[in-house]
TrEMBL record:
PANTHER family: FLAVIN-BINDING MONOOXYGENASE-LIKE PROTEIN (AFU_ORTHOLOGUE AFUA_4G09220). GO terms for molecular function: flavin adenine dinucleotide binding; monooxygenase activity. This is FAD/NAD(P)-binding domain-containing protein. It comes from Aspergillus ruber (strain CBS 135680). Keywords: Oxidoreductase.
Amino acid sequence: MTTEYAYGHGISSHKEYPQKGDLRQMMKEYPLPMIPSGMLNPASMVGDEPTNQARAVLNRLNAAFTSNDPKLVEDCFFPSQAYWKDQLALTYHLRTFITAAVIASSLLETRSMRGVTEGLAIDGSAQFVTATQTLQFIDCGIVFRTASPAATCTGKVVLLPVKGRIDDNEAIEWRIWVLSTILENLDLQEEDETLLRLPSKQYDGCGDFETDVFIIGGGNAAITLAARLKALGVESVMAEQNARPGDNWTFRYDCMRFHVPTSYSDLPYMPYAAELRHNHLLARDELASHVRQYVKSFNLNMITSAQIQLTQYNLSTKRWIIKFQGSTGECTAVSKHLVLATGIASQKPNIPSIADSHLYQGLSMHSAQYRNPKQLADHGVKSVLVIGSANTAFDVLEDCHAAGLHTTMVVRSSTHIVPIEYVTDKKVLGLYDINVAAADRLYLTLPACVDSHLTRSMMAMLAAQEPDRYAPLVSIGFPVHDSLHPDAVLMHNLIERSGGHYVDVGGTKLLTEGKASIKSGVEPIAYTPSGLRLSDGSSIDADAIVWCTGYADKNIRDSAVQILGGRSRDEDINGSDGDMIGPAAIATRLDATLGIDAEGEIRGLWKRHLRLDNFWVTGGHTQHHRWHSRTLALQIKAAEEGVLPPAYRDTPHIYPDSSSI
C-alpha cells in the first residue's frame, strides 16, 4: 500500500505543508540502540575486518535487490530501528524513511525508477567506531550508478551487530542501521571550477533581461548557490538590496562574531585564509570582506541596490517575471527559476507587543537596530536593559559592559548554554578544522534524529567531566539548560527554535562575577516612563532597552508576500489572461520552512515545493550553504537539461501512526 508523503497532491493551498514534526519527541520515540555488553569484542575489529563485514552486508543487500523480494531487503536492516536518508540519489528529493519494512519497499521502488543495475559497492575502507560505551558500529562509504538520469551517487552504510547463527553456531552478524545515499554528480555536467573564471555580465541600466535563475538576496546562501550554478554551466543573477556585496554583514552590530570554528563556515571553492582559522571566531567585517572577495573572484552576476517591486509567475509559460528598482532605474527580469535567499529567521525583528510604549522616555530598539555602545552614549545613555539570553543578547551585554554602561540582562526563560570548548572539540565541530569535506560527510549524511542523539551524547560526555561548571550561574537565578539536561538538544535550538541557546565565549562570567546584573524568570508586560514593568510586579529602570528577542520570519509563507513585492496576503494580482499569479497567491502555494517534518527533514529548504514549479528557498547555517548549495544547483541543472525526475513523495506502507505524517 502506498500513501502520499504528508498530504497528497490534492492538499488545499491554504493548509501548511508539510506538517511540523517534533525533533525531541522523535528522539524519545527512537532512542539510540544499545549494544549489549560483551556482545562484541572491539579487538576483533581491526585491519580489514570492518571492510570485510561491510562487503558481506552489501553483497547480501545487492542479492536481495536482484531478487526484488522486500522481505529479503528488510532482513538486511537492523530489526528494531533502521533509517534510509536520501539526498536526491533515488528520490530526487530530501527524504528519510524509517523502519526496515518501509525502507525495503521504497528502496525497491525508487531503485527501479532510477535504473540501478550494478548494486552498491564499497568506497574506500570501512571504519569501526566506538561512539559510546553502549554503541559501536561499522561506518563504510558506498558508491553506485543510476541510469535515469545517468549519474554517480555516493553515501554510506552504518552497521550494527546482531546475534545470528552460522552452521548452527551462534555468531555475530551485521545489519544496516543507517543507509545514506547522495547524488554526487550528473554525467551530463560535473562541477567545473574553471567556469568560475568566466566574466560576469554587466547589468548597468539593466532594463529587461532573461536568465536561467533569478536569486533574490546576495548573502552567503545566495553567492554559494550562484557559484555552484556557474560551475555547472547555469546562468544566474542575484538581486541584492544593499549597495555592496557583504553589506548583509556590515549592517550588523559592530561586535558581531560567529560562535563556531571558522572551518565550519568555509564557502565552496574559497575557504577562509589560514590566519582566520584555528582558535579564531569570524568577526563581522571578516565575513563581509569574504563575501565581497567571493563575488569578485568568481565574477558572479549581482545587481546591487535592488528593491523588488512585483513578482509574478506565469502558470502557462512557467516563467517568473520580476520587476525591481535598480540603482539606475526600473528593471524586469524573466527567469525560468526563482530562488529566495533572503535568510530564514533573520529579516523580520520580533519585539513583544506590550502596553504603554508611548510612556517610555528612553531609547528602545531591536538588536537589528543596535550598532555599538557609542550609538547609545551619544544619547546620554548610562544604563541598558538587554532583553533575552541567547547569543546576540550576550554579545550586546559584553559590548555595553566593556563601554562602561551599567547593563542588566532580563532572562525570560531557560537557555541552553554550551561552552565554546565543547563546540570546537575535535569530536564535535572541531572536526572541521581537520577536514571540512569529511566533517560534512559525517554530520550531513545522518538522519536528524541520529545526528542529534550522537551530538547530545558527545556534549553530555564533555559536560560530565565538569558537572558544576554552571553552578555559579544557577546560584544567581539564571535558568540554565547545560549539556547534561535531558531537554538539551542543540539541533532543536538551531532548526526548530532558531535561538534560545548561547555558545559561551565568556559572557556568563559577567553575570557570575557581578559585573552585569540579572533579572530572571520574568516577562516584560508594560513600559513605564523610565523602564519596564515585569510580570512579577516589579519594575526596572534603564536609559535604553535592547530587545534581543529574535526574528519572526521563520516560515517563508508568512514573509514571502513582502519579499516578492506584494503589500498584503489578501491582495490578488492576476494578469488579464488569468495565467499570472502575484505575491499573495504565490505565498499560499509555498511549502512551510524551518522546523522538521515527520521524517526529521528540514522543511521547505533546498528542494521542490509541492504546489509551485521552479521555485526554491535556500538558507540555514553556513554549513548548510556549503553543502546544500550543491543539492539545489544539481536539481536546477537537471531541470534545465530536461532530466529532473518527479520528486518521490510517496511512502510505501503506512507508518504506525499515519495521522502524524
